[in-house]
Design brief:
- Belongs to the EamA transporter family.
- This protein is mainly alpha-helical and 313 residues long.
- The protein has one domain.
- Helices cover 74% and strands 0% of the residues.
- It has helices at residues 4-25, 31-53, 63-71, 77-84, 90-97, 100-112, 119-140, 144-170, 176-198, 208-235, 238-242, 244-260, 266-283, 287-296.
Length: 313
């Protein structure tokens, strides 16, 4: 049996490196081509694995409904992420994704009639909104393009959280490989149609970094990452799994700084620390643990000077 700890670490590492890989996969090709090709390759891998393991994709009458709802987390969600990645650093992408627990809580109130908020979590939400305001102001100083990226990622969080809460409402316990493959099967046609309407042709020249990034995202970011996530959901409490939202942004900032040479300003670091603090408070961590995790984010101030995001046609 797979080690739950190894699976948990795998999810954290994959999610921490995915934002940078998304940026690299769009080098020389459009964001729509990059996300469509990634999901298409992942779908082929998933269907091949199901065939080798002799598993049926549809085993219950309402499987198609679960797959369709989960597909909203890929389309239109993932094109939003890829579009936003053109304008903001990879670490900021992961940081905004980390706000998902708050948005999920609000969605739970609206769709499930469940109120996960108490006094402590309301305070955490207020700190998160303040931190987001600091980040938004920092990105505004870089120009409109950076603000587009932040806004797009916030919209992506709403799609992801809405999808997660709707799946919880449907219930059920599907095999992770079937869930991931079925979700891709429902979303890839929409991605390909959108790509065809927007562009309709593949680029003539591909860089090796683009090809390797798409391959990494297809195999690890999509198939393995989702499967490991569903696996740890079966064996760990929701609160423990939710800690990935606290750890991943900090690691993603470090990856962006040391691997891609990204630089985060003192103001962005301050906003990031507030978001990390709010996530820790939301999950009920002790102040000492939150402080240790937040201090790691300071490592980003040692990177090279940050340049404003380049305009994208």
């Amino acid at each position: 049996m797979m080690s739950v700890l190894m699976a948990y670490l795998g999810v954290v590492l994959i999610w921490a490196t995915t934002p940078l890989a998304i940026q690299w996969s769009s080098g020389g090709i459009s964001f729509m081509a990059a996300v469509s090709l990634r999901m298409l390759v992942a779908l082929v891998i998933g269907l091949s694995l199901l065939g080798l393991l002799r598993r049926n994709l549809f085993c219950e009458a309402n499987d198609w409904q679960r797959y369709g709802v989960a597909a909203l987390g890929i389309f239109p969600n993932m094109p939003l992420v890829y579009w936003s990645a053109q304008f903001i650093p990879s670490g900021l992408i992961a940081l905004i994704m980390g706000l998902s627990p708050f948005i999920t809580g609000v969605m739970s109130m609206l769709l499930l009639r469940e109120n996960p908020f108490n006094g402590r979590r309301i305070a955490a939400l207020a700190i998160a909104l303040a931190g987001l305001a600091v980040i938004y102001t920092d990105q505004l100083s870089l120009g409109d393009k950076a603000v587009y990226g932040v806004s797009g990622m916030l919209l992506s969080c709403f799609f992801f959280s809405f999808c997660s809460v709707w799946l919880k409402r449907l219930g059920g316990n599907i095999d992770p490989l079937r869930q991931t493959t079925g979700t891709l099967l429902m979303s890839v046609p929409a991605l390909l149609v959108s790509w065809w309407l927007l562009e309709g042709s593949w680029p003539q020249h591909w860089s090796s970094r683009t090809v390797l990034s798409i391959g990494y995202l297809s195999l690890f970011g999509s198939m393995l990452g989702f499967s490991l996530y569903f696996y740890i959901l079966r064996h760990l409490s929701v609160n423990t799994v939710s800690l990935t939202y606290l750890i991943t942004p900090v690691l993603a900032i470090c990856v962006g700084v040391f691997v891609a040479g990204e630089q985060v300003s003192a103001q962005l670091l301050g906003g990031a620390a507030m978001v990390v603090l709010s996530l820790g408070l939301y999950q009920g961590l002790s102040p000492q643990v939150i402080a240790r995790i937040a201090r790691i984010a300071r490592i980003g101030s040692r990177g090279p000077r940050r340049r404003p995001a380049a305009d994208v046609d």
